[in-house]
Predict the 3D structure of the following.
Amino acid sequence: MEITEQNIQKFSEKCKNIFTQLRRDVVGQNEVVEGTIIAMIAGGNVLLEGVPGVGKTRLVRSLGRVFNLPFARIQFTPDLMPADVTGTNIIVKDESGNSKFQFQKGPIFSNIILADEINRATPKTQSALLEAMQEHSVTVMGESRKLNEPFFVLATQNPIEQDGTYPLPEAQMDRFMFKLIVPMPSMDELMDIVNMTQKTMAEVADSACTGEELLEMRQTANGIPVAEEVMRYAMTLVSATHPDSTEASEAAKKYVRLGASPRAGQALISAAKVRALMQGRYNVAYSDLNALAYPVLRHRMKMNFEAVAERVSADAVIGMIIDELGKGEKPAAKSEAPATEDDKKKRGLGRK
């Protein structure tokens, strides 16, 4: 697709409208909101990690309203079965009274899927999402069925309560483009949340983008050029997480047991193109890669015993790797989307 000034302007206006509408329902959480929108435009899935009550489910429901797409919530529990997610064949009788099999679609046949508390389901049920997340199709009883486009899985998990939970398999973790950490709100944000929910608990955001427009935005982003040096840096960033590779960083050699997969490189470039357009640039910069390295890599790296013993987090190691490579300014682990004038008035000048 040829990139024109009109495409770029339309992309920018759509992003602005999307953020404006989401802020009607979600207070603060700018880094999480921005990361989720980037992933959706790029065509990736998102894992949201945070304690209960910080707005994970509300964010996903609001996204369904903003993009005017069908939304389905799957509450993952230990007794949930794969057929409860994908659907199954049931026996029905036709007009002649003859019995036949008819496929009953499961909640996965929607555009936006909220997999709530995904780590509470057994690995057998979690694996029901694997094909849908990667191939955008579902195979039941030997027959493959395509899912509607655009299709996204936004999963949530609680990092504190681990009793009765099942850690996600490595293959499934790798299929999430981003892992976003949802922090507790600040005092001012907490006041805004309580004041907002006193009026109504329902979402009030209006539609700002259709599914067709979202697919057009994805095509526009895919056409953004990436310089060879920037591409090489992105691949070096991924390779540096492998302690046994020729590009291994000192931090990875010391703290990492297993590095990121090739999907990390794909996610890094796809997301960086969207971020560049959001900031009004027509090409990917080192700063885009450094900012997105945290959500792309933090769940794809496996820390070793030394990291656990010294309480060194994956984010800390990513920061060390960026410092070692020395390309551009290292961003904070949490970057915020630009605040509107209303946000500045509410939260005070100078606050992030």
